[in-house]
Amino acid sequence: MTLSSPSARAVDLRVEPVDNVLDHVERSLQVELDRDTVVRKRRSVGARTDRRTWIRIERRGLDKVDVQGWNGTECAARLEGIAQPTWRGCVVWRDADEPVMWRADETELLPSAPIGNAILSEDPKLEDAWWQAFNASLDALAAQHTGRVATPDTVTITQALVTESIRSLSPTDDFDTTVERWVPAHADLNWANMTAPTFSPFDWEDWGNAPRGLDSASLWGSSLAVPALADRVRHERRHDFESRDGKLMTLFACSKILGPDAHPQDPRLEPARRMAEQVIAELQAG
N or C, fewer C-beta in 10 Å, the chain? Predict the structure, then answer.
């Protein structure tokens, strides 16, 4: 018999009252949060502490609480060769009124400020040293081993999901969508989750095994409104993009941009369409 958890109501933590949650974290971790530094995102809240650390608080429905992402920051602490803030500890509790779990992870402060929004509209003008550190961390991550599976957008990535997403772009085209190589990936790599001028990726809750090239393709998709930046991502990660799996992940990224919820004024639409057509032609040609 399979036990199922009730679904939690959809909540946007950018507007949901969270004072009680912040109070709970302070009591549990014996820390004082600087309320003037609170950063609120759709599914997480963060703030500085009086001991010069950062606490990230996440709300997740019971139906979404499992090994696939819930303890990502904690599990990422054992990764080697990755630039990331040191993890200090956490507190986890079940909501008394809803089918929801809360988790607060405490880490060292970021070495620099986040680069920008998830999708950039201006070139951040990153130094060569930043790109070198970026490449070193992504290569080190892909060389490690984990039993976790990546959950981009909190959805477990599977072969079926990859195939379905790619077929949404080319329902009549016939080419093999089978992924050959699965490697550890951050799975939420965008410009809001990396710092500069010192490179450091953060928000590791979704990391795990994914098709090779997922991170590279995701970052490229987040860069398409700045053509020179998108080209730089493809150049720096060309060994990913030139691989067959990398081409599949390029189509996977394009499917997210060109999906039914796409905004007609999104400047990424046309370059994503062009790239999808080019990559589909390459895959069909073998």
Answer: N
* pTM, rounded to two decimals: 0.89
Query: Tell me, which fold does domain 19-108 have in CATH?
Result: Phosphorylase Kinase; domain 1 (3.30.200)
What is the SS3 string spanning the chain?
A: CCCCCCCCCCCCCCCCCCHHHHHHHHHHHCCCECHHHCEECCCEEEEEECCCEEEEEEEEEHHHCCCCCCCHHHHHCCCCCCCCCCEEEEEEEECCCCCEEEEEEEEECCCCEECCCCCCCCCCCCCHHHHHHHHHHHHHHHCCCCCCECCHHHCCCCHHHHHHHHHCCCCCCCCCCCCCCEEEECCCCCCCCEEECCCCECCCCCCEEEECCHHHHHHHHHHCCCHHHHHHHHHHCHHHHCCHHHHHHHHHHHHHHCCCCCCCCCCCHHHHHHHHHHHHHHHHHC
pLDDT digit string (tens) for 54-91? 999 999 888 877 755 578 999 999 999 999 999 999 99
Tell which phi-psi region holds residue 99, choosing left (phi > 0), alpha (psi between -120 and 50) or beta.
beta
Quote the tokens at residue 102: 């809360």
Q: Domain ranges in the chain?
A: 19-108, 113-285
Q: Are 7 and 99 in contact (CB under 8 A)?
A: yes
